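Priority: low. Protein: AH receptor-interacting protein. Input follows.
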Amino acid sequence: QVEPPGSYQQDPWAMTDEEKLQAVPQIHKEGNELYRQGKVPEAAAKYYDAIACLKNLQMKEQPGSPDWIELDQKITPLLLNYCQCKLQCEEYYEVLDHCSSILNKYEDNVKAYFKRGKAHAAVWNVAEAQADFAKVLALDPSLRPVVSKELRSLEARLREKDAEDKIRFKGIFQ
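Result:
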């Protein structure tokens, strides 16, 4: 297969450390463009590749060292983008894992709380979703309209589920 000039991309495992560091912004940009085009699984794959490059570099650093922290701060926005893709692909448990790992390091990350709250709501972890949304409001009160919308949606889904359960279990104990 003949590819146009500049379109070939080396696999991350074959890159030098310097090439990985230089490739990440371009991979991130490509992920953003794919996301804007609605190609969510493809965007997730790009974000994953960029994260893999940075994680590979991070493994060579002493945890907690300035270089390690700098790499971790580059990983976090990519991981949040990846989580947004996974939310749209309805892979909620992956979102819960990644957002929790971000929050273990960065307790004030509003986006991680919001995405984790949405994932909790999707898998019927009502108390956890409400706690995450409350934390979002505590950290950034300007997000009240967005959080209120999510909470209303969760309440509506709960009422719907309760109604279905009443119908389903009606007369079961007679």
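The chain has a mean pLDDT of 93. The chain has two domains: 12-89, 110-173.
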